[in-house]
Design the sequence.
């Protein structure tokens, strides 16, 4: 039975789309001994991660600064012209999950997004492992611990971001067909991490007043640091 890996990256002003790995249908003569497996699907949305930040002077994903993203793009399909149509997390992320253009006044929860990828994969017999940090689109009937209202964003920004991400990563294991979905408030401000992953300071407070807001936008050093 031949195996093919499909990796797809869609990097926008607010998001990064993860990858799925699939197994091809076996040849007719082998159907009795090797049943075709449905692919595992992993969707990772990273917040405030513009694609320009990943590029080198050749407009490629920089293989020195971001070797893993570059490797994923080299082994898959990178939609380099993809972008978000909304500058708000609570509008941009639901669009990724249900494909419906957001409108003013819509809520980032099940009330205004009754049909999404969660429903589609559940209908096809998939288990869902969901971790939404600013939305609540997966219903309790599909997702354990599903919310009816979106969580407060500020508390999620101020603490526990890497811990929540690592906990979700550890949930990715082989077994029954599964869709893993994670919206991570990383590297969303407060910007605390260097390219190496090291933290610049122990807490979320900015060491310079206005560092991550409008007063700091015109300073090249701060822009590069952030």
Sequence:
């Amino acid at each position: 039975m031949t195996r093919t890996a499909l990796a797809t990256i869609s990097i926008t002003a607010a998001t990064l789309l993860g990858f799925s790995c699939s197994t091809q249908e076996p040849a007719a003569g082998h159907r009795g001994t090797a049943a075709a497996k449905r692919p595992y699907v992993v969707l990772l949305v990273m917040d405030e991660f513009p694609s320009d930040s990943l590029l080198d002077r050749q407009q490629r994903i920089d293989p020195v600064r971001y070797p893993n993203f570059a490797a994923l793009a080299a082994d898959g399909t990178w939609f380099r012209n993809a972008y978000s149509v909304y500058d708000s997390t609570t509008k941009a992320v639901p669009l990724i999950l249900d494909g419906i253009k957001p409108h003013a006044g819509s809520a980032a929860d099940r009330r205004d997004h009754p049909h999404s990828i969660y429903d589609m994969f559940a209908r096809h017999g998939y288990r869902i492992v969901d971790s939404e940090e600013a939305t609540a689109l997966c219903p309790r009937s599909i997702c354990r611990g599903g919310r009816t209202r979106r969580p407060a964003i500020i508390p999620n920004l101020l603490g526990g971001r890497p811990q929540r991400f690592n906990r979700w990563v550890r949930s990715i294991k082989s077994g029954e067909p599964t869709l893993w979905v994670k919206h991570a408030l990383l590297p969303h401000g407060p910007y605390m991490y260097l390219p190496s992953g090291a933290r610049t300071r122990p807490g979320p407070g900015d060491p310079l007043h206005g560092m991550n807001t409008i007063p700091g936008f015109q300073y090249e050093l701060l822009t590069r640091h952030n």
